[in-house]
Specification:
- By secondary structure, the chain is of the alpha+beta class.
- It folds into 3 domains: about 210 residues, Aldehyde oxidase/xanthine dehydrogenase, a/b hammerhead (Aldehyde Oxidoreductase, domain 3, Alpha-Beta Complex), CATH 3.90.1170.50; about 325 residues, Aldehyde oxidase/xanthine dehydrogenase, molybdopterin binding domain (Aldehyde Oxidoreductase, domain 4, 2-Layer Sandwich), CATH 3.30.365; about 140 residues, Aldehyde oxidase/xanthine dehydrogenase, molybdopterin binding domain (Aldehyde Oxidoreductase, domain 4), CATH 3.30.365.10.
- About 30% of the residues lie in helices and about 25% in strands.
- An 8-stranded mixed sheet has the order 3-5-1-12-9-10-11-20, sandwiched between helices. A 6-stranded mixed sheet has the order 7-15-14-13-8-30. A 4-stranded mixed sheet has the order 16-27-28-29, with helices on both faces.
- α10 packs across α11, α15 packs across α16 and α17 packs across α18.
- The structure holds pteridine-2,4(1H,3H)-dione and dioxothiomolybdenum(VI) ion.
- The site of dioxothiomolybdenum(VI) ion (MOS) has 10 residues, from loops.
- Pteridine-2,4(1H,3H)-dione binds next to α9.
C-alpha cells in the first residue's frame, strides 16, 4: 500500500496548520524573545508596542491565569521570562495584533533592560559549577575495576557531537479558538496532543476537559514537537482566554531556529580495554549532556544515551555515567534517536581509536564483539540479537571483501582523492524508556454502509503511521483500504496519549486498533452465524462472508447492516499496554524494551583532498525489519534516516557564540543535506526474521534506528582522511565538516604544501 497521503501531498492539498481556513476575527501573535542569554530583568517596556497600529494587546508573565510554567518532566521552565532570562530567545512577551505583520512590527518596539550574568554554553563548565538538571546516573555491568588489569590494550580519549536543528518543513505553531463556556479548541502542530493539553491546562488554569487539542498532521517533527509545541499553544490559549478571539501563531523560521531547542550536543570521555584477541573486556564512559537552560526531556534523553552506550556490542564490564548539564542555551530536546546516537558515537570512537592505535581495521574489532542472543545489556535485559545476522549478510550480500579491495586500489592509484569505508552496526531498543508511557488507545466505528473510522493517539507527521493504521483495520476486517479512514488526532476522542515518538507509535496504536477491530469482528461473526442459520467457521475474506470454507453470498456491508438491525454495537474503544516491560531505576536494571531493532550499514565516501569536500558513494544496509508490513514506507524511513544521520555527522553545524547567541540562524548558515549531497547509492536489504516479537504484525519499528547508520559517514570520512595523512591526530569531533576535513588532511603536513 502506498502512503495514504502521497497524492494529496504531491498536489499540495494536504491540510497543515497554516491551511486551516481562518475564522473571521482571528488575531495573530508574535513572540518577543530575550536578546541576551543570561541575566536579571530590570525593565520590560511594552508601551510603545501597545501603541503600534493593529496591536490588540501585549501579554507578559503578569497575564498568566494559571502557572507560568511549561516544564514537562520538571517544573523548571517558565512560559514567559519574569525576573530572569536563561537563554537567548527566551519568550518575554507575546504581541497579539490584527495581522502577523503588525504583531511582528510591534514586537520590534519592545524595550528591555537586563543586567547580564555569566553565560555558560559548555556542558563541562556547567558540570564543574554544579549546574546539573538531575543527579548523575551510572549503568554498570560486571566488575570493571577488576577487568582493567586483564586488558592487553587500553585506550582513552574524548568524543564530541554537536546538536542538530530539526528543520521540520512546517515550523512550530498553534491556533486557539474560543468555544462555549470558557473552553478552547486548539489546533497544534504537535507530536503530543496530551502534552499540549496538560501544559495549556497548567498555564491557563482551565481543566483538561475544557481544552480540546486537535492535530491533523505535521509537516515533520523529528522529536522537535514532542515537548516543544507546548509553549506556543499555551501562548495562543492564554491570549484566546483573555480576548475571547481566535489567536494564531505560526512561527517564522528564524524565530523557530533561535527559540527552540535542538538535538543535545554531548562531550564524552571514554576508556576502553581489549584483550590480545581484540575482545573488549572493559568500557568506561562519562557523558556530559548539554541540556540547555531547562530540563525539557533531557533526563529521559540522558537515560537513552546510557541504554545505548554499548551499541551492538557485548562488553562484559561496563561503567557508564551521564551528567545532564544546565547551560544558557534553549532547552535541548528529543531528536530522532533521543540520545541513543550520541551514546553510540562514543563507543564507535573508542573502537576506532583502538583500531587506529593497533593498526587493524575497526571492523575487525567491531565484528569480534558483536552481541549474540542471550548476551546481557548493561541494564540487565537479555538480547534477542540479530546483530551478527545483519553483519554477516551485509558482508556476503554486498561483497565486503571486494568493496574493500576497490577502496584500497583507488587509494593506491589516486593521490588527490581518497576513499574511506566504514561499517556501522546499529542496535536500538523499542519502547519508551519510561514504562508507563507504553500504552495506547484506539476507537473504531463501523458505519452502516460498511465504511470504517479509526481514531488513535498517533500523530501523522509524514512517517506513514496513518497508512499503517488503515492496513491494520483493513486486514482484520478483510476489506478494501478505501473503506477505512483515519481521523485527525484529538484529545476528546482519545485521552491521555503518549507522544508519537520513540519509534513506537505504529506498534502501540496499531495494537490498540487491532484489539478494537478484533472485538467488533468477533461480534460480527456471531451475527453472521445467526443470520446464516447457525453456520460455524465464519471467516471474512475480501469483503465477503465465508462459512465452513465456502462463500455464503453475504457481503461485508450486508453483515454490518444485519448487526445494526440486531442492535449489536459497531463501535469499540480498546486499550493496549506493552506486556512484560519494567525497569527499576534504583538498581538501573530491568527489561525496559519490548524488543530491539538491529542492522548493519557499509558506508563509502570519496574525499577531495585538495578542497576537503566529499561525497558519499554508497550506503549499503541490511536492516532487521522483522516482517515489514509496508516495505515502501519502511524503505522511505530508512532512506530519510540515513540522510538525516549523515547530515548530523558531516555538514550540519550549529554555532552558538560565547554570549550564547545562535550564529547559524538561517538556512544559508546552516547546511542540511540536499539532493546533491545524498549518497549516490542507497541499498537496503530486508532481513526478514521469523522470530515472534511484540511489533504490530511483527513489523518492527523503523522510525529512529536508521538515523544511526549515518554515524558510519563520520568514520568513512575519517578513514579517507587517514588514507591521505596517516599521521593525523584527528579529534573525534562531529560534524566532520569540509573545513575540519581540510584541516585534518594537512595537519602535520606542511612539508606536503611545500611540494
Ligand atoms: N521520548 C520519550 C522518546 O519520551 N521517551 C523515549 O524513550 C523516547 N525514545 C525515543 C524517542 N523519543
Ligand atoms: Mo522522538 S526523538 O521519537 O520524538
Amino acid at each position: 500500500m502506498k502512503h495514504i497521503d502521497a497524492a494529496a501531498h504531491t498536489r499540495g492539498e494536504s491540510i497543515y496548520l497554516d491551511d486551516i481556513p481562518l475564522i473571521r476575527g482571528t488575531l495573530f501573535g508574535a513572540v518577543y524573545g530575550s536578546p541576551v542569554a543570561h541575566g536579571i530583568v530590570r525593565r520590560l517596556d511594552t508601551a510603545e508596542a501597545e501603541q503600534c497600529p493593529g496591536v490588540v494587546r501585549v501579554f507578559t508573565f503578569r497575564d498568566v491565569t494559571g502557572e507560568n510554567q511549561i516544564g514537562g518532566i520538571m517544573p523548571d521552565e517558565p512560559l514567559f521570562a519574569a525576573e530572569h532570562v536563561h537563554f537567548c530567545g527566551m519568550p518575554m512577551a507575546f504581541v497579539v495584533a490584527v495581522s502577523e505583520e503588525a504583531a511582528k512590527h510591534a514586537a520590534g518596539k519592545i524595550k528591555v533592560e537586563i543586567d547580564p550574568l555569566p553565560v555558560i554554553t559548555d556542558p563541562r563548565v556547567a558540570k564543574e559549577r554544579g549546574e546539573l538538571i538531575v543527579p548523575p546516573r551510572t549503568f554498570r555491568l560486571g566488575e570493571i575495576d577488576e577487568a582493567w588489569p586483564l586488558c592487553e590494550y587500553i585506550f582513552e580519549g574524548r568524543a564530541d557531537t554537536n546538536g542538530q536543528e530539526h528543520l521540520y518543513i512546517e515550523t512550530q505553531g498553534a491556533y486557539a479558538v474560543p468555544m462555549e463556556n470558557q473552553t478552547i479548541r486548539i489546533y497544534s502542530s504537535t507530536q503530543a496532543p496530551t502534552a499540549v493539553q496538560r501544559a495549556v491546562s497548567k498555564v491557563t488554569g482551565l481543566a483538561m476537559h475544557a481544552l480540546d487539542i486537535e492535530v491533523g498532521r505535521l509537516g515533520g517533527g523529528f522529536g522537535g514537537k514532542e515537548d516543544q509545541a507546548n509553549g506556543w499553544a499555551a501562548l495562543c490559549a492564554l491570549a484566546c482566554l483573555h480576548l475571547r478571539k481566535p489567536v494564531k501563531y505560526s512561527m517564522p523560521r528564524a524565530d523557530d531556529m533561535v527559540m527552540t531547542g535542538k538535538r543535545h550536543p554531548y562531550s564524552s570521555d571514554f576508556k576502553i580495554g581489549l584483550d590480545k584477541d581484540f575482545k573488549i573486556l572493559a568500557y568506561a564512559v562519562t557523558f556530559y549532556q548539554n541540556a540547555g537552560a531547562a530540563a525539557d526531556l533531557s533526563p529521559a534523553v540522558m537515560e537513552r544515551t546510557l541504554f545505548h552506550c554499548t551499541n551492538s556490542y557485548f562488553i562484559p564490564n561496563v561503567r557508564a555515567t551521564a551528567y545532564s548539564c544546565r547551560t544558557n542555551l534553549p532547552p535541548n530536546t528529543a531528536f530522532r534517536g533521543f540520545g541513543g546516537p550520541q551514546g553510540m558515537f562514543v563507543i564507535e570512537a573508542a573502537i576506532a581509536k583502538s583500531a587506529e592505535s593497533l593498526g587493524v581495521p575497526a571492523s575487525l574489532i567491531q565484528e569480534r564483539n558483536l552481541q549474540q542472543t542471550g548476551d546481557e545489556f548493561p541494564y540487565g535485559q537479555k538480547a534477542v540479537s540479530e546483530a551478527r545476522a545483519c553483519w554477516r549478510k551485509a558482508e556476503e550480500l554486498y561483497d565486503l571483501g571486494e568493496l574493500r579491495a576497490s577502496v584500497e586500489e583507488y587509494n593506491r592509484t589516486n593521490r588527490l582523492f581518497k576513499k574511506g569505508l566504514a561499517m556501522m552496526p546499529v542496535c536500538f531498543g523499542i519502547s519508551f524508556t519510561k514504562t508507563l508511557m507504553n500504552q495506547a488507545r484506539a476507537q473504531v466505528h463501523v458505519y452502516t454502509d460498511g465504511s470504517v473510522s479509526v481514531s488513535t493517539g498517533a500523530v501523522e507527521m509524514g512517517q506513514g503511521v496513518n497508512t499503517k493504521m488503515i492496513q491494520v483495520a483493513a486486514a482484520v476486517f478483510s476489506i478494501d483500504i478505501d473503506m477505512v479512514k483515519v481521523q485527525a488526532t484529538s484529545t476528546w476522542k482519545i485521552a491521555n496519549t503518549s507522544p508519537s515518538a520513540a519509534s513506537a507509535t505504529a506498534d502501540l496504536n496499531g495494537k490498540a486498533v487491532l484489539m478494537a477491530c478484533t472485538a467488533i469482528l468477533e461480534r460480527l461473526k456471531e451475527v453472521a452465524a445467526i443470520e446464516l442459520g447457525g453456520k460455524a467457521d465464519i471467516v471474512l475474506k475480501d469483503g465477503r462472508v465465508w462459512a465452513g470454507g465456502e462463500e455464503t453470498g453475504m457481503s461485508w456491508k450486508q453483515l454490518v447492516m444485519a448487526a445494526f438491525v440486531r442492535r449489536v454495537s459497531l463501535s469499540e474503544h480498546a486499550h493496549y499496554a506493552t506486556p512484560g516491560i519494567h525497569f527499576d531505576a534504583s538498581r538501573e536494571k530491568g527489561h525496559p524494551f519490548a524488543y530491539h531493532v538491529y542492522g548493519t550499514a557499509i558506508v563509502m565516501a570519496t574525499l577531495d583532498c585538495l578542497r576537503g569536500r566529499y561525497s558519499f558513494d554508497a550506503v549499503k544496509v541490511v536492516h532487521d525489519f522483522g516482517v515489514s508490513m509496508n516495505p515502501v514506507i519502511d524503505r522511505g524511513q530508512i532512506e530519510g534516516g540515513i540522510v538525516q544521520g549523515i547530515g548530523w555527522m558531516t555538514m550540519e553545524e550549529i554555532v552558538y557564540d560565547e554570549e550564547g547567541r545562535l550564529r547559524s540562524n538561517t538556512l544559508s548558515a546552516y547546511k542540511v543535506p540536499d539532493i546533491y549531497s545524498v549518497p549516490s547509492q542507497i541499498d537496503i536489504d530486508f532481513l526478514n526474521t521469523e522470530q515472534d516479537n511484540l511489533a504490530i504484525f511483527r513489523s518492527k519499528a523503523v522510525g529512529e534506528p536508521p538515523l544511526m547508520y549515518g554515524i558510519g559517514a563520520y568514520f568513512a570520512l575519517r578513514n579517507a582522511i587517514r588514507a591521505f595523512n596517516p599521521s593525523v591526530e584527528l579529534p573525534f569531533n562531529a560534524p566532520l565538516t569540509p573545513e575540519k576535513a581540510l584541516m585534518g588532511l594537512y595537519e602535520n603536513q606542511l612539508k606536503y604544501a611545500g611540494g
